[in-house]
Amino acid sequence: MSISTTPTDAADRVPEHEPTAHRGLLAWVREIARLTTPDRIVWCDGSEAEWHELTDGLVAAGTLVRLDPAKRPNSFWARTDPTDVARVEERTFICSADPADAGPTNNWVEPAEMKLTMTELYRGCMTGRTMYVVPFCMGPVDARAPMFGVELTDSPYVVASMRIMTRMGASVLAAMGDDAPFVRALHSVGAPLEPGAADVAWPCNDTKFISHFPETREIWSYGSGYGGNSLLGKKCYALRIASVMGRDEGWLAEHMLIMKLTSPQGVVRYVAGAFPSACGKTNLAMLEPTLPGWTVETVGDDIAWMRFGDDGRLWAVNPEYGLFGVAPGTDHRTNPNAMKTLAKGNSIFTNVARTDDGDVWWEGMGEPPAHLTDWHGDDWTPDSDGPSSHPNSRFCTPITQAPTLAAEYHDPRGVPIDAILFGGRRRTTVPLVSEARDWVHGVFLGATLSSETTAAATGKVGVVRRDPMAMLPFIGYHAGDYFAHWIDMEKRAGDAAKLPKVFYVNWFRRGDDGRFLWPGFGENSRVLAWIAGRLDGTAPAVETPVGMVPPPGALDLSGLDTDPADVELALRVDADEWRAELPGIAEWFATMGDKLPAVLATELDALRARLA
Ligand SMILES: Nc1nc2c(ncn2[C@@H]2O[C@H](COP(=O)(O)OP(=O)(O)OP(=O)(O)O)[C@@H](O)[C@H]2O)c(=O)[nH]1
Ligand SMILES: O=C([O-])CC(=O)C(=O)O
Ligand SMILES: [Mn+2]
C-alpha cells in the first residue's frame, strides 16, 4: 500500500505518492477526501504485505479474531453489529433521472436530491479514519474491455474482503492507465471518530443508504459494513449497474451460478442457474454428483455476465474472484467442496460461531460442540435458545481455492451456455424440474419465478414473493423493460442463434409433514443428468400445462434411498395448485403497466387456458 497524504492536509497535498496518472481518478479521490475528511488516504496495491497489515490492524481493533492457523491458516472470525447482518432492500435506491426507469420493483429518489441528502451524510464522515482507494476489475483484467471500478471506503474489513472477492490492487490500477472508464463506488460506514473517541469493533450507522445512479454508473453506499451493502463490486456494480449497461449494450448481467457438467461419456455442457439469495446457487455450482461418472466443475456461484458470441451462442463470464457463501447448512455431506475450499484458509467468516479451540462452527455442521462463542460474542451451549450463527452468516474465500474450479474460469471469453435453470424455494406447487417449450416460454418462467424470502435480506422470512430471474432486488431499471430485453436476446443471437434451453427447478418442495420430498445437494445430479439428456435429445419428457417434465422412470434414481412415492410427489404438476397461482401472476404482471411485453401476457393467457 502507499500512503499518499499526511493527516493534516489529506485532500490538497501534491500527489507525489499517488500511484497513478489517471486524472479522472485523482480528481475524484481528492473531491471525496475533501468532503469526507479522512485522516489519511491509502492506495491499495493488493499485496500480501498489505493484507497482513490490514488484518493485523483489524485484529488489534477487535473487528477480526485470528483463527487457529493449524486449523484455519490465515483466516479470521468477524462479528458484525447485530443490526448490520444482511442486505437492506428497503434502503436500496435506483436514482435514475426518470422515475419510470426505476420501475415498480425499485425505490426511487431523484438523483440530485439523493446526492444532496447523502453529501450531507458524507460530510466529515471519515474523520479519524483512513480512506482506502481500492482499484478493482470485475472479470479478467485481460478481457477485451476490462470492467474497472474503484471503491473508496473507510472500512478495512471491506478492503480485506474486496481483496478476496475481486481482482484488485496495483495490477488493476496499472491496467487502467491514465484514462480508462471506471465505476465510481463510494462507501462509508458512517461513523466518524472525533479526536480521542474510542472506536467500536463494528462501526456502522442506523441511517443506511445503498444508492445507485445508473446513468452516471455511480454507487453511493452509507451506513452498513455488511458484504451485500458494502462490497460494491458485487450486487451494486455486477448486478444493478451492470444490468443497465447490459440493457444499453445488448447483454445480460444475471444473478446466476455457472457450472461445467461432464457426462460419463465425456460430453461437456455449460449450465447457468438463477436462484434467489440463499436458495442453492453456491451448492449447485460446487456439487459432488452422486450419479457415478458425472462431474461438476465450478465457473461461478453467484453472478454471470452473458453476451452472444459470433457463433450465436450465449457466452458467460463470472466477474467475481471469490465466494461469499451462506455458512449454515454447509457441511461435508451437503457441500464437501466448499469445506475443502475453506480448509485451505485465507478466508473471513462473518457472524458464525467460534469454537474454544480457535475454529468456526455453524448450524448444519454435525453435532454441536459443548461450548461455543456465538455470533453475538456470548457463551453458547446446545441448550441455548437461538442458533449459534446468524442464518445469513457468511464465508468469504478465494474461488481459486475450490478443488472444483474449472480451467475455463480464467478465460476472458467465458463459456457457452447450453441451459439456463430458474429455481426458487417453494413448499408447494412448483415441480422438481420442468422444461420450457421455447425461449419466450422460458422468459415467462423466469419472469414469474416465485420464492420464499430468506435471511439474506432484512425482513420477514418464508413469505412467497415474485422474484423474476432471481433478480428482484438487483434489476437496475424497469422490470418490464428488463423482460423485454430478455425476449429481445433471441433476435440478438443472429441467424446462427443457438439459444440455451430453459428449465425450472425446485429442490424445496415439501410433504404434508414438512419434510423435503427431494434429498437435494449431490442428488441434484440426477436432475442435471435428465437436463443433459434433454439437450442431447435422448431423455423423454411429457407435456403438462406448465412445461415438459420427466415421465415416470426418466430420472435415474438408481442407488437413491428416497421413497419413490416422494419423488413422484416432488415431480407432480397439480392443476388446482397452479390455478391458485394464476391471480398472483396476473397481479404481478399488472404492476408492470404498459411495459409488460405483450408476449408474456399471451403466455399467461395460454397457461390459464391449458389449466382450464
Ligand atoms: N434442502 C435443500 N437445501 C439446499 C439445497 N441446496 C442448498 N440448500 C441450502 O440452502 C441454503 C443456501 O444455499 P446456497 O447454495 O448458499 O444459496 P445461494 O443461492 O448461493 O445464496 P446467496 O449466496 O445468498 O446468493 C444453504 O443453507 C444450503 O444448505 C438443496 O438442494 N436442498
Ligand atoms: O449480497 C449478499 O449479501 C449475498 C448474496 O450473494 C445474495 O444475497 O444474493
Ligand atoms: Mn447471491
Give an account of the 3D structure.
By secondary structure, the protein is α+β, with helices and mostly antiparallel strands. It has 3 domains: 2-62 and 86-249, Phosphoenolpyruvate Carboxykinase, domain 1, CATH 3.40.449; 253-321 and 407-611, Alpha-Beta Complex (Phosphoenolpyruvate Carboxykinase, domain 3); 323-401, Phosphoenolpyruvate Carboxykinase, domain 2 (Beta Complex). Strands 1, 2, 5, 6, 7, 8, 9, 10 and 11 form a 9-stranded mixed beta sheet that branches. A hairpin with a 2-residue loop joins strand 31 and strand 32 (547-549). The mean pLDDT is 96.
Give a topology summary:
Blueprint lengths: L1 E2 L19 H14 L3 E4 L4 H14 L2 E3 L9 E3 L13 E3 L4 H4 L8 H12 L7 E9 L8 E7 L2 H10 L1 E2 L1 H7 L6 E6 L20 E5 L4 E5 L4 H4 L2 H17 L2 E3 L2 E6 L5 E7 L6 H5 L9 E6 L3 E5 L5 E4 L4 E5 L9 H8 L4 E3 L2 E3 L4 E2 L10 E2 L5 E2 L13 E5 L16 E2 L2 E5 L9 E3 L3 H9 L2 E3 L11 E3 L12 H14 L8 E5 L19 H12 L5 E3 L2 E3 L14 H8 L3 H16 L7 H14 L1
Parallel strand pairs: 2-6, 4-19, 5-10, 7-9, 9-11, 14-26, 26-30
Antiparallel strand pairs: 1-2, 3-4, 6-7, 6-8, 10-11, 12-16, 13-14, 13-15, 16-17, 17-25, 18-24, 19-24, 20-21, 20-22, 22-23, 27-30, 28-29, 31-32
Helix pairs in contact: 2-5, 11-12, 11-16, 15-16
Bound molecules: guanosine-5'-triphosphate, oxaloacetate ion and manganese (II) ion.
